[in-house]
Amino acid sequence: MVRRSFGILLLVCASVTLTPARAPAQAPMPPTPLRPLSMTQLGATPERIWTIFGHITTPDGKPTVEAKVRVDIGLAAFPPRALETNIQGNFTTEYTLEAKSNQKLSVEVVATKAGYFQGQAAAEFKDEEGTREFRLVLREETGDPDLLPLPSLVASLAPRLRAPGAGGPVSASAQKDYQHGAEQFLDKHSATNAIPSLAKAVEREPNCVECRALLSLAQLETGGWDSATRQLLEATDTKVPERASAKRPEPFLILGVLETWRREPKTASGYFQKALELQPADPFALQEMGRALILQQNWEAADQYLEKAMKAGASRDARLLRVRALLELNDTTEAESEMKLVLEGRQPRDMPAPVRRLYSQLQERLQLKAYGSVKSVVSQPLSELVRAVPELAGLQPALDQGELPRLLQRVGEGVKAFFRALPNTSSREEIREEILRRDGKVQDSLEEQFLYLLVMRPAPLDLELSEYRTGVEQLGAKATGIKLGFMRTSGFACTSLHFHPMYQSGAAFRFLGRQKLNGRETFVISFAQRPEAAQRIGRFDVDGKSVPVLVQGLVWVDGEKYQILRMRTDLLKPPPNSRLERQTTDIQYGEVQFKEVPTPLWLPREVTVTVQWKGKTFRNLHRYSDFRVFKVETEERRRAKGSAPEADRTVN
Fold first, then answer.
1. Distance CA 235, CA 258 (A)
2. Could you give all domains of the chain from N- to C-terminal order, each with its CATH number?
């Protein structure tokens, strides 16, 4: 018999909603600025110690661990040195040189890491200096689809800065340096070659706002974000009348985009507002203000700014951003109309990845319209619900819904705190995969064991929870379940996100009453996702096809700690064209204490999943034990050696 193989993803944990804050960069402690000159013996030549150190981060300020750093001082006697950043993203090195003939030192630092764009910076030590700090930022090559790419920033603003002098006269020498730098940057596309000339122009004309703005863009391209920020803050310093009179919006626009990259959209909005005060109809300023408001989930205001941006002649990005805002406002009709204008008759598969992604989200929303008005556990008569769900036996019905707002608040606070505190974890997972006969008896089964990893990564607006199963060989099992026609399920750690304060608006809730659960007094709450407003949408993946899935369910909440002890979910309605008839997930939570985390966390300990598809019934029983904190750096090193784990699903 030929068995079909498929996988099922129970819940997708990555729509864009949570806004992680930027972690401040932890600057390394600078070494002693100047060491005393040493004399190795009487009459020896005096020496000077030059110390070069630095800090390398991602755009949101997180340390870049194990980045390769190349330091070159341009002297034949000292070949370039190869360093590596530590866990704080720091590096340091020293040079001992003869003092009299080395009164200044030119240094170039280049930082690289697999999967990231290169960063580089150059500087010259002055005679009185003994140390020099380099702060570089490495951007991921994949980039964040919700943020403006650096090439788009440069392409949008750099041409506007080709000629200096809008704020006042510029000397001939500064004009010459500026034109040479602009030619290198804009025409020859070499930020590295442009920086020296632009820096000279700034040195000759400190009040040239255009000079500082164009120099900052070149510095951003080479990873010198710290230097770029300093130039921009100087350009926008209102205490200098000559700069304030320039009335150029570009420095504020660049600062605003930098703040969005650093996950600070509120600060970004302030900069964009200043730019709009200078040029109210600037299409780029209107577009990026709309983006910053989307990052703050202020959908209505974002829609207004983006509509103005398009009328002012903004790029296609503004229309795409508006589609995003309209989807969050549940205006699928207008979103569909805007998407047609984006496509201009072209096929979605021929468009860039951000367009394809947004198109898929729109199609998903349109599919959910088919749910219409559905009878759910929220609207179902309680007596009928108790008969349908035997686990509700003994329930003491609630007299009214007066307690519901308080319960949702307390439970939501607990879920939010859980995901804020959840570290990267590993555990032992035992799965019994079963295929059932029509009478409910087991027809075939398979038992597997894995090392199960949960890796938390902050995303721009959300949590990105990646799940991996690995260590199969060490645990004595083979990853054969899917190949043999069984299913393998995952995604349980994020099921409680339906109760997160950010997502409660996407579901309807009902307080059913009180019930004893394993000796504990619990509150029982039913919920059902709202097709027109659901923010977190699961998927059913089979035979290369994927359909959106909405759920309804029950939770049992501890009467004292307001912790979810048990959670059951079912399909809100079988999705069309899927032949999926049932999907029931029953999660039992258990308290886990990590020594690295001050408070206990409640994680899934036992999970039972029952699925009916194409007339067959599948059941999986998951058990988790031996929970430990998992170090991501170790995993990254292991992948670099070519032994990546088996990635079952990335729960976005």
1. 15
2. 47-137 (2.60.40.1120), 150-368 (1.25.40.10), 382-651 (2.50.20)
